[in-house]
Amino acid sequence: MAASASSTFSQSLLSRAIPNHPSLSFLSAVKPSLPSARAAASSSRRRSTRSRSSCAVVRAAAVETLQKTDTELVEKSVNTIRFLAIDAVEKANSGHPGLPMGCAPMGHILYDEVMRYNPKNPYWFNRDRFVLSAGHGCMLQYALLHLAGYDAVKEEDLKQFRQWGSQTPGHPENFETPGVEVTTGPLGQGIANAVGLALAEKHLAARYNKPDAEIVDHYTYVILGDGCQMEGIANEACSLAGHWGLGKLIAFYDDNHISIDGDTEIAFTENVDARFEALGWHVIWVKNGNTGYDEIRAAIEEAKAVKDKPTMIKVTTTIGFGSPNKANSYSVHGAALGSKEVEATRQNLGWPFEPFHVPEDVKKHWSRHTPEGAALEAEWNAKFAEYSKKYPEEAAELKSITTGELPSGWESALPTYTPESAADATRNLSQQNLNALATVLPGFLGGSADLASSNMTLMKAFGDFQKSTPEERNLRFGVREHGMGAICNGIALHSPGFIPYCATFFVFTDYMRGAMRISALSEAGVIYVMTHDSIGLGEDGPTHQPIEHIASFRAMPNIFMFRPADGNETAGAYKIAVESRKTPSVLALSRQKLPQLPGTSIEGVAKGGYVISDNSTGNKPDVILAGTGSELEIAAKAGDELRKEGKAVRVVSLVSWELYDKQSDEYKESVFPAGVTARVSIEAASTFGWQKFVGDKGKAIGIDKFGASAPAGKIYKEYGLTVEAVIEAAKSFF
To answer: Is the overall model pTM greater than 0.90, yes or no?
Structure first.
């Protein structure tokens, strides 16, 4: 009875949600729309539909071969998902019930019929990955994890939705909830992460699968909404997915035509199907996502049959499906239904159960995933054991990537330098480190946003990861900084031994800050290789010269901001970055040549701040000079001059404030003794934050305005970043 009622309701609401979609003449209720834009889109959709008529035949045939579950039980399971979401949002009086209510059918089919996973080991390597890019609808995922038997989401966790300390936060967080692959919420990030996950699978399969042993074989599934489609990052990432031919990436587009401000026709009328086809995706349209279970099943089967392209399955749904008064409206998007509407929805869908109740037949049906998941993992483990006997070297590499256990002695590959070593830009020294690490770290891969020859990020031993050469390790991102960062997050979170890096000019972190913040939040240890770190880049001028950027990353939690001064500090920064799999690192690197300074060391970088030269005794220098990057040389030269005048001078490198902050009070006292208030800092960037080191009586030399277009030496002189300026500031204390 419930199935029949909701089916009728589905047809009514579907007609309101997609009035101009073709092939829906059986629906009668049509709501007004903005005619010109929607009509144009409708016409284009009709052309697209005709061009895919042959695919419809394939889907119809596929229905006959798919595993099916009793329709009544499916409907009951789908409504269980809906009401778990409704009840959790209602109890919290906060959340987004509309998406889970509309996407429950596709969620059910994915988790119950399609995906391979082990709920008792959410980190089994060869599991299928699922990303809810529309993270605001997270109660969909929590309900699915609960039904599937994941220990992280018990009934009590559902009841604690959005509450302090719960494992069911307001958006999916991989570091809080085992079973959640990536952290989503900022729209578009999730689909871009999914591209990274799918890239990782394709890369590993190409490197390690053998004709007699397919050891890497899993899919990445995504649900994204209209908001994700509008964000530029989604287009950047999906463009690359099409270019790379990520055939095991299947994205479900929740086509419900509603965003926070209302119907998407007010701002979003493009033909998404045509855009994705142009991006190189296979596109399928499921017209009835509310009750068209067989359509969804067949679409997935068709998507899996397409090996050389990612697939977007546009699933037309009704947001808030089942709610008599709020479905298909923005009011169901981001607020609890309210007790009266909850009761009306229960009546409408024939749901007589108390809040959070899972019917016994639904519970029994889903319970099979625990033994089935364990069997899948056991089967894979046995297969990998055989693989290890036949291919021990490849197995050892793959194990390193899947476990995060770095090869023994890897750090010995890092180059070291002496003061006699040639002066060089730290971007070039970075390239030496990258290429050294590439030979010893099997999970090391990355690339640049169309600046590889400037960022110096090519690994010379490898070719380009492309559609036909996915085993290679140089990634060509094109001019897509934001997508690049989010894709690298997906790679990092695919397996703990992946160490992705990405590169651009430091100032262009402005284009990718959203992804970098998610790196820090989601504990994705991406290495951000950022060159052209200051006014030292010279003639390109203020549009390309970072000023506030260093300070902004120092203010961001759980990210290491490195500004190395020479080769040893660059190597030290890479050592920490590689070891820090749950903390991303930013390396700000120079364009101009810098000398190899006496006193710098890999070990010193691990402290974040350390003394590189000191002629004082008793921990009582006359003055402390501190600097980073290219200005550490200036501080060192100023120290030498002051010592000639009989002064006791300590020079300190503060290569990473975050690492220095982790040191003991005793160590900090040995670097910056409290009794010494004569302190001068110099950095070619904003002085914001330096007071914590120089104190109220100290002096911070830096730049608190935009840069200029001129040769680097001229800008440094005009901006007062000179040895003379440091000496003058130091002498003001004597």
So the answer is: yes
